[in-house]
């Protein structure tokens, strides 16, 4: 074919660099259309499966874009990402704190109003545009390209401390192969006269002491660094090595090795009864709804970019609406299941603690007989000579009588009420639940090392599933944008994260974990998701997005989503953002410190430099949004040729599997024209445009798989296009 100004037959392995705007625009000028596309006409009869193929050179080797091997693998990846440690220790705590079973009502309502619509939105844009978060929002509007970078920054911050929690679980897992468990009882200090219990442990408990002193060797405040904890440093290295090896090998999903789904029969009925005894009056408090909305928001991993990254490897006609509803409710029911297990374990622990309390206070009563308590006050059927035989009912009967008679002196007797309800109402969350309350309960189980191994193995797997999605939310957009090899970027990212993560394994590291958990993600992610929603509903256009969904899914989504995306969800998110700001302003930054001498937790305010770090985390996470907007708005970075939006790709073409092998491709190359100028194909012809950025229908693989760049169909009316 002769070379001219309109069309040219080029070598198929030429490297071409074009801006995102060039790649995505369908308004190609006639004179330079050869720079952007060539049309391939396939005259064969019948419908064949369309696929993306890249001919990499004379050797004819084909490279495929990473794609899911099956729908099950993809669903497990999304479930693994969304179901994490928060389902085990955050949701049960909120349920316990906010009215038991009554908390499920606002949670379910907000899941339908906020969670599912936003989850569906992220799945749809990722599947439609087939890029990571940076490419997706650059595509919607280059001025909003900072949304993707903000997601990457937040993902990195979260990955830094999230893997530290996995390293803690690995440490406890490695220590669980002992009988008895090392946190079973307080250690003894041997001296020349007689051994004695470590004072710090005696003042607290065996499991509390083991967590703070043996595992963390924690300092008294965030200002006391104390040097590295070598045991946790090794565990952190192992955790990052596991993540790095998994991501290098292309593992994008982590099926759960094990779910801790058994309900323990020992005393569990008290905990479950406590859970399902709703306190309906609490539902009227605004704080309950705010905490439910926040939990919905983070439970599904919205705004992190992991959801978009995973869905970008889907076929274009995948039913992402079904996926959104399925994964959301799997997440919800997993949270409920985890809550049942947690309340069952806490119920068992409450019974054990209550029995100890009854025995201890019965001994006090025996000691006070004749010296403050008359023997006539003790019911005749209660035998105090055998303290172990005194039941909780007997004890409560005794103290009711004593309280009635000794009303003025009762407080001085020092007798406790020993109530299971009081024990269950002690709300525990996070590390306190996993590494103190659960470990204490497991010491009373038969075959306790087995249950400990199972529990911490579950925590490791839950954490790794979420970590894979978080790291994918960093790698995929960067690979799509900057064209680096996945292997190099993965290793570099993990090495950098481990190096920064040493901050969290020094003696004061637990306080930095709390700081990052409270301030690095909440506000930035809220702002990111609000901008995502507004970008689709108002910048791109909700009507155009619905047309895209209809073309992609084969049916029009429920009108419910139209009103959610355009009005209800943004308003609810803005209310949540404002309430979070108000709470942040009203409560000065603080953390819970463990004071070794007193053997108890104490709430301390961050020092001035700590407050600066807290503010810096929020600012750094959200800064890419205004920076990119400003650079684009004032044309400091040209939207057509900027380095941030430039994508390199190898030249390729879309073919049909039904095409006869060996057919001369020269006959299929015609002059490239814009869609408005190109002649309509004859019936039976299929016209495709070769273009980077996405895949056509059923295109689950794409050329240049190392970098994750797909190809778009030329049937441009069904391709979403940026208004900016």
Strand-pairing-aware structural class:
mainly alpha
Largest sheet: 3 strands, antiparallel
Based on Cα principal axes, name the global outline: globular
**Rg of Cα set:** 31 Å
What would CATH call the architecture of the largest domain? Up-down Bundle
Q: What share of the residues lie within helices? A: 40-55%
Number of strands: 11
Q: Estimate nothing, just give the exact number of structural domains.
A: 2
CATH topology description of the largest domain: Amino acid/polyamine transporter I
The main sheet orders its strands as: 10-2-11
First-last Cα distance = 37 Å
What is the CATH domain class of the largest domain? Mainly Alpha
Task: Please give the count of helices.
Answer: 25
Beta-strand percentage?
A: 5-15%
Query: How confident is the prediction overall: mean pLDDT?
Result: 76
**Low-pLDDT segments, ≥5 res:** 1-63, 251-267, 641-724
Task: Summarize the topology.
Layout lengths: L14 E5 H5 L14 E4 L7 E4 L17 H12 L2 H5 L1 H7 L6 H26 L3 H8 L5 H29 L13 E2 L6 E2 L1 H5 L2 H10 L14 H19 L19 H8 L10 H14 L6 H6 L8 H49 L23 H14 L4 H4 L6 H5 L5 H13 L5 H35 L3 H16 L7 H11 L2 H32 L5 H28 L3 E6 L4 E6 L2 H15 L1 H10 L12 E5 L2 E4 L12 E2 L15 E4 L35
Antiparallel strand pairs: 1-8, 2-10, 2-11, 3-9, 4-5, 6-7
Helix pairs in contact: 2-14, 2-19, 4-14, 5-12, 5-14, 5-22, 5-23, 6-7, 7-10, 7-19, 7-20, 7-21, 7-22, 7-24, 7-25, 9-18, 10-20, 11-14, 14-18, 22-23, 22-24
How would you describe this protein?
By secondary structure, the chain is mainly alpha-helical. It has 2 domains: 80-351 and 428-634, Up-down Bundle (Amino acid/polyamine transporter I), CATH 1.20.1740; 352-426, no CATH class. It has 25 helices and 11 strands. It has helices at 20-24, 71-82, 85-89, 91-97, 104-129, 133-140, 146-174, 199-203, 206-215, 230-248, 268-275, 286-299, 306-311, 320-368, 392-405, 410-413, 420-424, 430-442, 448-482, 486-501, 509-519, 522-553, 559-586, 608-622, 624-633; strands spanning 15-19, 39-42, 50-53, 188-189, 196-197, 590-595, 600-605, 646-650, 653-656, 669-670, 686-689. The strands form 5 sheets. The chain has a 3-stranded antiparallel β-sheet with strand order 10-2-11, with no helix packed on it. Strand 6 and strand 7 form a beta hairpin. Helix 4 packs across helix 14 (320-368), helix 7 packs antiparallel against helix 19 and helix 7 packs antiparallel against helix 21 (509-519). The radius of gyration is 31 Å and the shape is globular. The two termini are 37 Å apart. It is a multi-pass membrane protein. It is found in: Membrane. One of its GO terms (cellular component) is plasma membrane. One of its GO terms (molecular function) is proline:sodium symporter activity. Residues 660-706 are annotated as: Disordered.
